Amino acid sequence: MSRSFKSIPEKNEKTSINANFAKRLIIFPDAATWTPSPQKGVEWLNLELFGEESVRTTYFARFAPGASLPRRVHDGGEEIFVMEGGFEDESGFHGEGAYLRDPDGSTHTPTSAQGCLLFVKLGYFLPGDEERVAIETACGEWRKAPEGFAIQPLHHFAGVTTFLVRLDPGAVLNRMIHPQGEEAVVLAGSCQDDGGNYARRSWIRDPGGHPQSLISPGGCMLYVKTGHLAAAGEAARPTAG
């Protein structure tokens, strides 16, 4: 039985990746080096990884057509957004745009006949967050705003909120980034702010608490999670002893 990809260290191993949550971070997967997994046809790109008693990690996973993984246990829960392609497990087929949350202790055996690209967060479920969620966002309801953007809610628990944002071509979104931090993945199109330009598949982690003017000349869609980075940063700090 596998806990997850072999990229995740055993308990109490001192490995960490991008564990300074007070620092703004941008990763462009198309320009990064991916790591092959022990399972043929599966590779990953670690974005952040930390933890001792329980490991938390965020990563992109890429399956070649026909690739699969052995049965996996979700220690601390697993959150998945299917960015491209699709995969199948015991609960059915999950195509592009599927948003999945499997709570602590659940298991599955993913396989992808067509290949897929996944955004995955493992180990971030808060105590008491035990609901399984499966949303086909392609059929989801968008809440439109007159400023040229729309939001599709995905999940909310204990101050942590996950949603999609869609900007119309030429739209400008002026807002305050959540004071407890935010991360975003550009799912389609591109956008920019004072901090840089973000092409499709870009991952942005921001400690928050400051204004942002987000512009999308051609339109874009983003996966966004807010309110969780401050707690993650506390968990990532080494303890004295």
From TrEMBL:
InterPro entries: ChrR-like_cupin_dom (IPR025979), RmlC-like_jellyroll (IPR014710), RmlC_Cupin_sf (IPR011051)
Superkingdom of origin organism: Bacteria
Residue span(s) of domain ChrR-like cupin: 24-125, 131-230
Pfam families tied to this protein: Cupin_7
Name of the featured protein: Anti-ECFsigma factor, ChrR
